[in-house]
Design brief:
The protein is α/β, with parallel strands linked by helices. The chain has three domains: 66 residues, OB fold (Dihydrolipoamide Acetyltransferase, E2P); 148 residues, Rossmann fold (3-Layer(aba) Sandwich), CATH 3.40.50; 57 residues, Ribonucleotide Reductase Protein R1, domain 1. The strands form three sheets. The chain has a six-stranded mixed β-sheet, sandwiched between helices. The N and C termini lie far apart (46 Å).
Amino acid sequence: MDNNFSGIIIKGVGGFYYVEAAEKIYECKARGIFRKLNMTPVAGDRVNISINEEDTDKTAVINEVLQRKNVLIRPPVANLDQLIIVVSICDPAPNTLIIDNLIAIAEYKNIEPIIVITKCDLANTDEIYNIYNKTGFTTIIASSITGQGINEIKNIMSGKISAFTGNSCVGKSSLLNLINLGLNLKTNDISKKLGRGRHTTRQVELYKINNGGYIADTPGFSSLDLEKCEIIHKDELQFTFREFAPFINKCKFTSCAHVKEKGCRIRQEVEKGNIQKTRYDSYVEMYNKVKDIKDWEK
């Protein structure tokens, strides 16, 4: 007898998918139809599965992958609600181009970018905070030493699928341990359930945290990976800068690229201080990088 459940893939590796459904974790295989459709289920996918209760191993099968909110190629993960971009105020110093690249990709993929500025106990955060807070992003000042900002981060992660990214040494691991004190223990427990050791390839894995949300453990998740795999076309780039939105159709020329054209409303707003100059400079650099890329090269 088959029982049907809806669940979420928390890990997929070696042709097996581990689905959290009905408060259990099931090892599943995917139906052959997905191969014919050239579709690979990934962590974060909402799925419908069936379990054969008469089978002593209680084998389970993924029958359907529900419509995705978004999907990233590398790291392979679906339905992210938030990309939490961790930036340290020093050691290493903030790189606004990297931050803005990550924000643009998140916006392009319908993922809400959250900026977390760490090491606030070591230097003043006002400048970098104001750039992003004034642009309209949730911006949190945090310290793993004093605990500042930890509760705020916990609250925004409640009930959502979040991924953390940022340069090495910015303090992601320290933050994660404070956000969910039992995460290391739970990670080990889940790893045993998932049979780590049986499969050697590390893939994206979702971990449930205390507030009912999930953290996507994304090995190798860097801005470089995203830039390589998630190329934004030059005509779409302007829409990934949310502060441009009120002015995009108000330039002198409808084909304005907002780089050096006369009568560009975007550039005028930068001069007035209504658009942060560092954000605009990032846009220009990103535009010049992708302007010659053809559709077939994406």
